[in-house]
Amino acid sequence: MKVGIAIPTYNRKELLNGLLDSIPDGFHIYVSDNGNFVTDFLKNNHRVNNIVTHNVVIPMFSNWNASIEAAHGCDYIAITSDDDTYEKNAYAVVSKYVSEYDADVFIFGHKYINGDSAVLGSYCPKRLELHASPNGLAEHFLGVDARMPSIFLKKTFLDEIGYFDDQTFTITAADSELIQRALLLGKVLYVPEVIASYRVWEGSLTNSTQATTKWLTEVDLWTKKIASLAVSSFSESTKNIYDWRLYSDEIFARNLLAGLSILYKQKSYKEISIHLKNNRIPQYASIKTKIRISKYMILACIKRLYGA
């Protein structure tokens, strides 16, 4: 049985080296080198099983797909950014559960770390649970807390449902859409063990684009895809176990809220009003989230009124 880690990388040799050093023995490693920045360096690393090199830079999500395509003969796989890391016991934990349980998707826990590798927080399933389709989606129905380095998918299942949608998404949502697609269609095992660290950067692409209409448009495309998939894949009684109006509006609202938070921290009070004006009001979002959105709107008005 081959358990693999697919790594899409782009010109970050030192971070990639840190990831490779953290991966325990036992995992098969596959790399897609976007722009041919690290291939020569990797040729000296005997632990890397396959390298796909792109001499011309390709779109981000296409590179993620290329890393999966490099994993020939792999039985289970995680797709990991080149700045993430793994725990020393990750292989022992993952191999134990993929051997003992018949599941398509394995959700483990992860830490959130910053650029200095300080721990900011964590996510971990509360208990060991096996869910048949479509019940595995419930825990991540209104937002995806699991992250790619701590999600292992059966490769044949991934081949069946498809990889990242690199035609629809360009800046966000491709990973969340794939995760929710897998949770909706597959048999899912939640495992209460932390195996990886997911890095969060201040000033990253997420921070620079989350308060944009483009970001929210792609969020809407993500939720429409998942809701449509549920409608086409399940019977009336099964697909109605989820409230799809709440689903699409709450996820939109949470992303809108995250963008407003970024603008407020930047003291961009006028842009808060513009951002709210340019995007739809999520009618079916939870009252709690709508109140938090209203709070930013009111605070921004007060700050502008008093010249803060």
TrEMBL record:
<dbReference type="GO" id="GO:0016758">
    <property type="term" value="F:hexosyltransferase activity"/>
</dbReference>
<dbReference type="Pfam" id="PF00535">
    <property type="entry name" value="Glycos_transf_2"/>
</dbReference>
<protein>
    <submittedName>
        <fullName>Glycosyltransferase family 2 protein</fullName>
    </submittedName>
</protein>
<feature type="domain" description="Glycosyltransferase 2-like">
    <location>
        <begin position="5"/>
        <end position="117"/>
    </location>
</feature>
<dbReference type="InterPro" id="IPR001173">
    <property type="entry name" value="Glyco_trans_2-like"/>
</dbReference>
<keyword id="KW-0808">Transferase</keyword>
<dbReference type="InterPro" id="IPR029044">
    <property type="entry name" value="Nucleotide-diphossugar_trans"/>
</dbReference>
